[in-house]
Amino acid sequence: MSENFVKQLDQIVAHGAISMSIALGDKLNLFETLASISSEENPATPDEVANKLNLKPRYVRELLCALACGEIIEVDKNGDKFWIKKEHQEIMIGPNKNKSFVKNSMFPSFGNVFHDIVGVFQKDGPYGMDYSSYTDFYETMSTLSQAYHKKTLVKDFIPMIGMKERLESGILVLDVGCGNGFHVFELASHFPNSRFIGVDITQKAIDEAKGKTNGHKNVEFLCMDAAKMNEEWTNMFDLVFIFDACHDQCRPDLSLKEIHRVLKPDGLFAMVEIDGTGNCYKDKQEKGLTAAAFYMTSVFHCLPVGSNSSDALGLGTMWGIERGKKLLQNSGFTNIKVEKSPGFEVNCVYLANK
Ligand SMILES: C[S@@+](CC[C@H](N)C(=O)[O-])C[C@H]1O[C@@H](n2cnc3c(N)ncnc32)[C@H](O)[C@@H]1O
Known about the structure:
Residues 168-275 form the Methyltransferase domain. This is Methyltransferase domain-containing protein. This protein has 2 domains: 2-93, Orthogonal Bundle (Arc Repressor Mutant, subunit A); 111-353, Rossmann fold (3-Layer(aba) Sandwich). By secondary structure, the protein is α/β, with parallel strands linked by helices. The strands form 2 sheets. The protein has a 7-stranded mixed sheet with strand order 5-4-3-6-7-9-8, sandwiched between helices. Strands 1-2 form a two-stranded antiparallel sheet. The chain is 50% helix and 15% strand. The protein binds S-adenosylmethionine. The site of S-adenosylmethionine has 22 residues, from α9 and β4.
């Protein structure tokens, strides 16, 4: 039994190592480049890959070896020429990379804050972490959101919440905690008659979103704490979204009350959250090892950013549906429903009216 456990630990180390190697390869554009200059019939040397990327060949060789031993790319029998299987290329390359591939890019930014997190755990340590401590957070997050939601956001999610016709005819929409704007841009380009406002608490997210606004006339981004939104917005929005941005607010209770205030009397609030049960035993049964990845993400990111004040609720990623429903009720919402949307496998969708 304990022998099996030791084997399990070895597997964990190997998978962690492969995950970091994937993230590094992705960051360096190594997969795109390798695919563009090689095939099973004509594999590429590390020098060829390195030259194309203007990188040091010795480092590129080592990373290619790690990826080949990890069965992410292929290597010839001499151990010095590499390629990517055809059927794996669309998973790792191009604008629509698979979410299971993209997820690996989260871990390096967690590694960056490892020692800070040790400090946060201490009784006399800081309350939590600031978003600015996470390198490339908004870019990583929008890449993840794209990988998770792009295929089904307009096709399945919008019809599921029953807002397709109203969005087509033209309504006013708010996205709370919009990050650098993936959902706003995606929806704005499909529904040109509607107007979209994205708010986020950090100026960095808003600056990045504004930098991508090129050509979109129906979007606006504002730096604003969702717990204290514009006073003139009462009863203003037909539709308010939160995409994965409730559980990592310090005072989501205040934000939800604000969303209730700014929603029109006949408006709809749609909140996309992580589909947790609030019970770690059940999460483990339902999600297996994936549940561990969610709790780990919570430890390294969602919990510390949502705990970063003396009055923070500190919900964490896996706070769970029952708690979510209660928070919505306490904020004045009615007709609260929790739905699943195709393609949003890790999420549940709360729908509610004023
Ligand atoms: C996990 S990210 C989600 C970003 C984006 N909605 C997405 O799905 O790609 C959470 C976002 O909530 C924002 N946020 C956290 N607390 C906030 C608050 N009190 N008011 C507004 N935005 C907040 C963060 O800056 C971050 O961009």
